[in-house]
Design a protein that fits this description.
Layout lengths: L10 E2 L3 H11 L3 E2 L2 H8 L4 E3 L6 H10 L4 E3 L7 H11 L5 E3 L7 H11 L6 E7 L3 H12 L7 E11 L3 E2 L2 E2 L6 E11 L4 E7 L11 E6 L2 E4 L2 E7 L2 E6 L1 E5 L9 E7 L2 E5 L9 H17 L9 H20 L3 E2 L11
């Protein structure tokens, strides 16, 4: 869909048979190893889309060949895996991770507003929409969080909930079933995050999504901002999405921009493709990776950030399972440039 920016030149399978199946499915050449792929195609970078346990090996194979790699989240399944991976490839400056949530149009517009100073110094972020490392990535994006130790306190609660939708279908089942909610506070040292996630909240439309970004001079709550703009003057303003394709707007159904008043906070970088928000975000990650690999742009989401966000997510799970606070350690990637 973006042939002038990114072209798929081949696909690598775990063996020759898998490579042939993938090649037939996607209509591109197939290869049985990253090395074979590099020799044949000279790719600018590779995308690793494999199970958690296999991800570090693919990343290491690419780095050994000098290839930049964009890995799915998380880059390794557990803390030992994160440490081994960082020790192996952390100094290479060849690894980025496909964390798309801060690049969602809605989140990107809120980030632009928060970074403009509109609500003063950001002090806390509440996220109730997505899980673990994705939620932590959003928190750290707003807080400008570093890579140092944090303290997590988490609890879980179980309550009945109907689950009308899963990833790919309606369930047609209106019987309530036990659903677990995990709530955690994360002390980043001078700022804090509140994590609130219910099983299948990504897809269950009976649970709303919520993000609250609080600052010293106001807050952003979902699609509204409240600010102190002068003496005895507090105003509330909506973040407005211009969506084309309604009524006699014949430009096609897609996001055009998100604004507050006369200020455009976000503009869809892929007009005419009619992408949903997740597709826009992933396309943004992919094109940013391409620009970075060509030394023509900033890194989209470095390995150090991904390791830190998964470290904190593991602490959330540990605290929830033990009922005790967990303080993360200072890891080797903490010295990496943001």
């Amino acid at each position: 869909m973006l042939p002038t920016q990114v072209e798929v030149v081949g696909v690598v399978g775990r063996n020759r048979e898998a490579a042939e199946i993938l090649a037939a499915r996607w209509g591109v050449p197939g290869y049985a190893s990253v090395g074979e792929f590099k020799s044949a195609q000279r790719p600018e970078f590779i995308v690793s889309a494999v199970p958690w346990a296999a991800a570090p090996g693919v990343t290491e194979a690419a780095v050994e060949l000098g290839l930049p790699v964009l890995s799915e989240t998380p880059p390794a399944p557990d803390l030992d895996g994160l440490r081994r991976l960082w020790g192996s490839v952390g100094s290479s400056d060849l690894v980025q991770v496909a964390e798309q949530y801060p690049m969602y149009p809605s989140h990107a517009s809120r980030l632009a507003l928060a970074r403009s100073g509109a609500i003063g110094t950001v002090t806390s972020v509440q996220v109730s929409s997505t899980h673990l490392y994705h939620a932590v990535a959003l928190m750290r994006a707003f807080l400008g969080g570093g890579l140092g130790p944090v303290t997590v306190s988490a609890q879980t609660f179980v309550a009945p909930l109907i689950d009308p939708l899963v990833r790919d279908r309606w369930t047609d089942d209106d019987r309530p079933k036990d659903a677990r909610t995990t709530i955690a506070t994360i002390d980043f040292g001078g700022s804090m995050g509140l994590y609130d996630f219910t099983d299948n909240q990504w897809h269950n439309q009976l649970r709303s999504r919520r993000i609250v970004v609080r600052g010293s001079a106001g807050e952003i709550s979902n699609d509204e901002v409240v600010q102190l703009i002068g003496p005895r003057t507090i105003v509330r303003s909506p973040l407005v999405r211009r969506q084309t394709g309604y009524d006699l707007d014949l430009d096609g159904f897609e996001t055009d921009h998100i604004s507050i008043g006369e200020t455009i906070l976000y503009r869809n970088p892929f007009p005419g493709l009619r992408l949903n928000d997740d597709e826009i975000a992933m396309s943004t990650v992919l094109t940013a990776m391409a620009a970075w690999a060509r030394c023509n742009g900033a890194p989209p989401y470095p390995l150090a950030a991904a390791c830190q966000d998964h470290l904190v997510s593991l602490a959330i799970e540990q605290s929830a399972s033990t009922g005790m606070p967990v303080t993360t350690s200072l890891e080797a990637w903490a010295d990496a440039a943001p």
